[in-house]
Amino acid sequence: MPGKRFALLASIGVLFAVSAAAQNGPPGPDAPKLEADGAIRLAHEARFPFSSFASKQALARFLQILVEDRSAPDFEASIEVIRAYYDKLDEARVERMKTLYPVKIVVSKIDGVPVQVVSPSNAKPDPQRVLINLHWGGFMFGAGNGGLVESIPVASVSKITVVSVDYRMGPEHTFPAASEDVEKVYRELLKKHKAQDIGIYGCSAGGGLAAQSVAWIASKKLPRPGAIGLFCSGLDGFGGDSAYVAPLLNGQAVPAGAPMDLMSELPYFKGADANDPLVWPGRSPAVLAKFPPTLLISGTRDEALSPTLHSQDLLARAGAETELHVWDGMWHRFFADPDMPESQAAYSVIARFFQRQLGRASARTEKST
Hints:
37% helix
């Protein structure tokens, strides 16, 4: 979220602090305190070292991001200021990615929806499979460079063409505008590709939209995609331990109240019903039971780790096929920085997942029709 982009988490840090206090005898005045509602009030001088399992490159980037985040615009800033700030950050990443991952980029429109078609230039693109990328940005920013950051390495490593969709966002537009745009692109791709050969993925808001798109596509009686990816996102709202522990690892105060309610805070969802499975598919086991194979990615310092883990649990209970990867020490949308070994590992995981899942038996894909 703007101004809170880099809230971090790791509930294990809280558990270590509590365990240490228990082993060292009666708690002192600064020891963690258990409150009546189960909340733990941490010691004043609690310290959380950076993960010993993370790479040196990740540590260096982590320190840089902490400095960058101090200049991030507040949530209340104008939409023009917010979009310009994050577009500039992603523009630098795009230029770096182009040197590491050779691709061809074509700016176009599909049924009136702006898209960027990204295909590998160092190998012949897979003629059968295609991916739809839905960019990050709280349904407010991330179009253009934000989508390219998430598309360039995936297209290059997987050898699959990625269609990055610049869907309609708030405050100019409200739900279900973005889902409608994804539907338009999906319908056009179905004219050239089988449903089981189409994958959809996204990060943060884009991950939420990927989930919404599956439910939306099913509501339109279209065949479900072959596989999807939900990265640093969830199916059933925002909250859990990560919303509270994450800020500690970023030197921020623990939120005093409930986590931000996306339905009330984000202009895109003005007037939407949080219990509508087209908004939060996780609210409907019946909808989740028809989900395609789903890849979930997060990090232990991602504010959305809890929603990611909760989504994994919901999908598993519904009988959907899932694959979960969590990188220690990594933050929200960590794979936007291509020089880290963890990012490169994530690109490989994403590529292998879609290469393996797309094109499997059509009978499985047609389950939702």
